[in-house]
Amino acid sequence: MQDGRCSEADDILPDGTRVKKGDLVNYLAYSMGRMSYIWGDDAQDFRPERWLNDDGAFQPQSPFKFVAFHGGPRICLGRDFAYRQMKIIAVALLRYFRFQLGGHDNVTYKTMFTLHIHGGLYLCATPRPAP
After folding, report:
1. Residue 58 burial class via C-beta count within 10 angstroms: exposed 0-12, middle 13-18, buried 19 and up
2. What is the pLDDT of residue 97?
3. Between 20 and 30 A from 68 (CA), which of 28, 35, 38, 105?
4. Beta bridge partners of 116
């Protein structure tokens, strides 16, 4: 997904690029999420633990690092609600089911308007035994 903004004043971006008033600045959130100089050498790897500190607690990152919800004064008002929903659903699913990836050795993406997994992503969900 491409997004952009129009500069309202002369400015300098964090990498030193000069932006003049009226310039358009566009970025690709998909590409930024895979840049090794932002996320490290394992940027291509799915590692949810990169959001946790050494004690296993959530470690907030700059909203400008993960731009799915934008950042600054125009950050998405629903961001916290979306995070909360994600956590509730994840806990509920993991409480009642075990998941195993099936039929894929290598997951690849098909870039479209929204990001699709090429060939689909098949999971086998089996109920967990009652405690």
Report:
1. exposed
2. 95
3. 105
4. 110
Q: Residues with Cβ < 8 Å from 120, sequence gap 6 or more? A: none
Q: Which tokens is 93 given? A: 């699913």
Q: Report which residue type is found at 71.
A: G
Indicate the helix (H) or strand (E) that contains 67: none
3-state secondary structure of 1: coil
- Asked if residues 124 and 100 have their Cβ atoms less than 8 Å apart, the reply is yes
The answer, yes or no, to whether residue 20 has pLDDT greater than 90, is: yes
**Entry pTM:** 0.61
For the chain, how far is it from start to end, CA to CA, in angstroms?
43
pLDDT tens for each residue of 91-117: 999 999 999 887 767 778 777 777 788
* C-alpha separations of 40 from 16, 43, 80, 113, 120 in Å: 21, 6, 26, 26, 27
